[in-house]
Amino acid sequence: MIETEQIKHHNNFEDCLELEAAIHACQEGIYICDADLRCVRLNSAYTRITGLTEDELIGKTSIELEKNGTISKAVAVIVKRDRKVVSLIQKFRSGKNVLVTGTPVYKDRKLFRIVITARDLSELNQLENQLNDAEERSERYLRELSLYKEHIKSEKIVANSPQMKQILNLIPKVSKADSPVLLLGESGTGKEVLARLIHETSSGGDSPFIKVNCGAIPGDLLESELFGYVKGAFTGASDKGKPGLIEIAENGSLFLDEVGELPLKLQVKLLRVLQDFEVTRLGSTKSKKVSFRLICATNRPLKEMMEKGEFREDLFYRINVLPITIPPLRERKEDIIPFIIKTTEKLSSRYGTLKTISPDVLKILESYHWPGNIRELENVIERTFIMTDENSITVKDLPSNIAADKVSKDTYTLKEKMQIIERDIIEDMLKQSSSLREAAKKLGVDASTLTRKCQKYGIFVQN
Prior knowledge:
Elements: H1 2-25, E1 29-34, E2 39-42, H2 44-50, H3 54-57, H4 62-67, H5 75-82, E3 86-91, E4 97-107, E5 110-120, H6 121-150, H7 162-176, E6 181-184, H8 191-200, E7 209-213, H9 219-227, E8 228-229, E9 242-243, H10 245-248, E10 253-257, H11 264-276, E11 278-280, E12 287-289, E13 293-298, H12 302-307, H13 313-319, E14 322-325, H14 336-351, E15 356-357, H15 359-367, H16 373-387, E16 392-393, H17 400-404, H18 414-432, H19 436-443, H20 447-457
Parallel strand pairs: 6-13, 6-14, 7-10, 10-13, 15-16
Antiparallel strand pairs: 1-2, 1-5, 3-4, 4-5, 8-9, 11-12
Helix pairs in contact: 7-8, 14-16, 18-19, 19-20
């Protein structure tokens, strides 16, 4: 019997040691008081989290600690009164704010102990900040990935004309610098292609190339897209906030297309970013250092806009460090035929169909004035390539406005002239009619005949 009691005592002692070790190994603060709310035990984590010592707490009641200002509000008093688990934020004399949870422990249906756990709010806030940073990085990476999917690698620019050769000779010098570049020229002249070439040949060529069309996004939305925002910055803002495109362009290039459309309010904010290389998200007071290459493009007369007060003079001089003017296609006709051949080869590869272009077509396209510049020329070539059934693109396959522009007695046969004029008449009549049947009636032909001619000339008829 004596041996049995000794074994029990030994086992109880080992259990106590094990429990003591477990309490002190816990990273959360543990504070235990008896039914009279007197502190009987605490672990080292509790003193670390609260900034208090054992001498200040052991043997003292929660009422005393609250009264002498050691703690702001005694959770144990509330637990004993309400007989339930209670959580609150407690402020300690050390100045620390701690999240505490008091849990009652009963023995024979009577309150025996109250166990209080303490969590350092500064540690929780640090973890929350780390989580927010991780989520922000994730959001940034996902957005960059989305932008990279849309990113089309610029191809070598066609430059047979003296003007384009001169521009290409400037690119190595421009790429080495990190100064702002301003690309000037009519719509469709290839400003974005040149901007990508500058970016890709620069030291940051592997970093993001972020394009923003300033004329396609409403002012308020453009502001949040460019500068980003924090949680609660405006109605409908994401709970996680969002990095702006300026931040996403870090170490890369920010391409502001149609910069002349930038509202005056945003011109001021952009100027501040370019002066300090710091960006502040909407709804935040904290600025963040940024590093990026600015490339702007416009087809508008910025100097005239400055005189009218539509564009800030200080911003103009800030972005006009390295200006490059791209001439319209009609002023560099030497580039037209090489571009047509290059585009046709690309389309043949894409569609797996080899097509050639007749000399007459090349002559017409070279002499056309191209108000829409490269963009219009590329669209015409692609449309003609797709709609032509034969392996050779001839005059009759060209859009009527371009072909009719060059119908002359010196160049074409009577048959070709008649085909061009016939197609032009059909297209005009279809535009004036609500249906193919109505157009056929006005032209005095059967609907089946008109359908056949539309197919012949590659005219799309909307049902």
